[in-house]
Structures are given as C-alpha cells and as structure tokens.
Write a structure and sequence with these properties.
Strand order of the largest sheet: 6-7-8-3-9-10
CATH class of the largest domain: Alpha Beta
Distance between the termini: 30 Å
Largest sheet: 6 strands, mixed
CATH superfamily of the largest domain: P-loop containing nucleotide triphosphate hydrolases
Shape: elongated
Strand content: 25-35%
Helix content: 10-25%
Number of helices: 9
Radius of gyration: 25 Å
CATH architecture of the largest domain: 3-Layer(aba) Sandwich
Order of helices and strands: EEEHEEEHHHEHEHEEHHEEEHEEEEEEEE
Bound molecules: adenosine-5'-triphosphate
Length: 362
C-alpha cells in the first residue's frame, strides 16, 4: 500500500516571501496517477520536492503508505524521481545508468542484471543497454531516466515535466507509452506539468494549482466539464472555456440572465445573485451555430475562421463580447458573416463575481 496523505503542507523559501506552497491537503490513492497542473511558479515542483524530502516544510505532515515521512531523508521514503533534464551520467552506458541506484544499494550482481534488463524492456531499451547517452535520441535518454527510476521498485514515482525536453511528435508518442507503462506498474505516481493536454491525457485525477494552493482535484473530464473557478476553466481546454459577462434580472418572481440580447433561464443558485453580475462559461464545442437567422438564438458575427482539420475554430463577436466556437469543417464560414448561435443550455456553467462556480452545484 502506498497511498499518500498530504496534510496542511506549507513551504516558504525566504522570510517575507509569499509561501510557495500554502497549507495544501491532498490524498493520492494507492496506484493512482495524479497530475499536478498549474502555471509556472504556482508551486508544483515545490510540492513534489517536499514529497521527495528535498525540501523541508514550514508546517504540515506527509505520510506515504501510512508512515509519517515528514522527518525522513529522501532515501528512506521509497520514492524515485524523474526530472525534466534527464540527469543521466554521460560516461556510463545505458546498463550502468539504469543499474546505478541498485549498485549504490549493494544489490547482488545477478539481481542487478535481471532487474536492469526487465526495466529496460519495459521502456523499450532492451537493445540499447551497451550504448552511451551521446548515442541516444532525446526520447531514448528520457526513457533511461524513467527506467532508472522504476528499476528501484519505488513505492511512489515522482515525475517533474519529464516530456518537456522532447519535440512535439516524440512527446505525443512517449506520453502514450508512459501512460501504458505506469498502468502496468501500478505504482502510485505524481506527475508535474504545466501542459493541460498532458494532464488531461495522462492523469487518473488532476490537482489544479494556483499561487501555492490546490483549487480543484478531480478526474480529467470532470475538471474539464465542471471547472470550480473561471481560472480552471480558462486554464484547461484548447481553446479555453468562453466566459461571457451577464446581468441577473429578476422580475415578477422570474429570474433571467440577459446574454447578448437573448434571455436565458437562470438556475436557482444564480437567482441569489439578482441584480448582480454573473459570468457564464461555455465550451467552444457546446455552442450550436447556423448560417442563417433562427428563432431563440443570438445574432453573432464571424471574425476569424481557423481550420483545424476535422473542425473549424471560429472567433465570433456577440454584441461587444467575443467567443470561440468549434463547428464541423463543412460549415460555410467566412469572415464578417452574420450567423446565429445558441449555447447548449445544459452545458452552461455559472460563476459569481469572484469567479467561483455557483451552478451547477457540486
Ligand atoms: P515551473 O512550472 O515554472 O517549474 P512551479 O509551479 O513548479 O513552476 P515552483 O518551482 O514550485 O513552481 O516555485 C514556486 C514559487 O517558489 C515561485 O514563486 C518560485 O520563484 C519560488 N521558488 C522556487 N524555488 C525557490 C528557491 N529555491 N528559493 C526561493 N524561491 C523559490
């Protein structure tokens, strides 16, 4: 069992500086693949280093597999780490690199042979064991780093942006391989990235961080579909969630929201904000579009047409506001064209003035 319990962890690097990690609580289940996602400087790496024991927290506790490791040095935590820079030894062969940690632990020669071969097979480097890092591609070097970590059979695998030095195609390929590998190993894994596509595609769950705090934890598609705040909705998704400003109007016991001249029924939670402003969030793929006038739609105008292959990405203006929508590539779109749009009612997400989601609840 190697679940992870992080309780109220705080880390400040220097006096007078804002905490890099502020009172974070997080539970990672045994065998789970958890992704820490957030913009640069939000504290992801610091949280990972706290877990690894490379930083000491100001306060809070960390337990791995039920054992409090807060005061244990890194080598006693049963963790292995893979970094963005592969940090493999250039003067050692692939075999020696992968087996290095085992040699340090005085594991027997025959066991090293067996475990290194097994780890190398898992990352598809079985035929490269005698090569040196200079004779490998970037993707192969990163596989050496992954093999070096998994050969230690850690209770917890920590990865800090391991794909970010690879080119786009290699990233895509290695991402899928990594997902398969981690699923096979069934090792509790925490993976840091600022790349939301990576987070969506890899994680069993995602913890979205901002300014040292975790804002939302959930399964990738839940976080995508029901962002807890406008920040999360704007950070996850390509394009990001659209946000439209609207005013809540209450008359004769009926509450509506005026969105681009089109009154929308407001959910109960929004009624409490009557007279105030709300932000309506809607994903680009959840807006229906017509090339002619339609009843009960909003008039809009196409500004930019971007073909993406299967879809067209349209930037459209609705009154003074702008939004992006995705439609099929056979839609007869051209710039300046008047169109009619209608957000799918069940896909509307409602946020208060502070950017917190008020509806749907939960
Ligand atoms: P990135 O994606 O850019 O790596 P991150 O989310 O991993 O960012 P951290 O590296 O954890 O963020 O940094 C969080 C905050 O702590 C930042 O404001 C950073 O400047 C600060 N910080 C990180 N390491 C140190 C350090 N050794 N000394 C002082 N401040 C630090």
């Amino acid at each position: 069992m190697a679940d992870i319990q992080i309780q109220q962890i705080r880390k400040t690097y220097a006096r007078g500086q804002e905490p890099a990690v502020r009172d974070v609580d997080l539970t990672v289940r045994d065998g789970e693949f958890m992704v820490l996602l957030g913009p640069s400087g939000c504290g992801k790496t610091t949280l990972l280093r706290l877990l690894a024991g490379l930083e000491r927290p100001d306060s809070g506790r960390i337990a791995i597999g039920g054992t409090d490791v807060t005061d244990l040095p890194p080598r006693k935590r049963q963790i292995a780490m893979v970094f963005q820079s592969y940090a493999i030894f250039p003067h050692m062969s692939v075999f020696q690199n992968i087996g290095f940690g085992l040699r340090m632990q005085h594991v027997s020669r025959s066991e090293i042979q067996q475990r290194v071969h097994h780890a190398a097979e898992l990352v598809q480097l079985g035929d490269f064991l005698q090569r040196y890092p200079s004779q490998l591609s970037g993707g192969q070097r990163q596989r050496v780093a992954v093999a070096r970590a998994i050969v230690m059979q850690p209770a917890v695998l920590l990865m800090d942006e391991p794909l970010s030095n690879l080119d786009a195609l290699l990233r895509l390929q290695f991402r899928a391989e990594l997902k398969k590998l981690v699923a096979e190993l069934n090792t509790t894994t925490i993976y840091v990235t600022h790349d939301q596509v990576e987070a969506l595609s890899l994680g069993d769950r995602i913890a979205v961080m901002r300014s040292g705090s975790i804002i939302q934890v959930g399964a990738p598609m839940d976080v995508y579909d029901m962002p807890a705040t406008t920040f999360v909705g704007g950070f996850i998704g390509m394009p990001p969630m659209n946000f439209l400003d609207a005013t809540v109007v209450s008359a004769n016991g009926h509450t509506t929201v005026d969105l681009g001249g089109q009154p929308l029924d407001a959910p109960d939670a929004v009624r409490d904000l009557a007279g105030g402003d709300v932000t309506v969030g809607i994903r680009a793929e959840s807006i229906d579009v017509w090339d002619q006038q339609e009843p009960s739609t909003m008039p809009a105008r196409i500004e930019v047409v971007e073909p993406l292959g299967a879809d067209l990405l349209l930037t459209v203006s609705v009154g003074r506001q702008q939004l992006k929508l995705l439609t099929r590539n056979d839609f007869p779109a051209r710039p300046n064209m008047p169109i009619s749009i209608r957000p799918q009612q069940d896909k509307l997400r409602w946020f208060d003035a502070a950017g917190e989601r008020v509806a749907p609840a939960g």
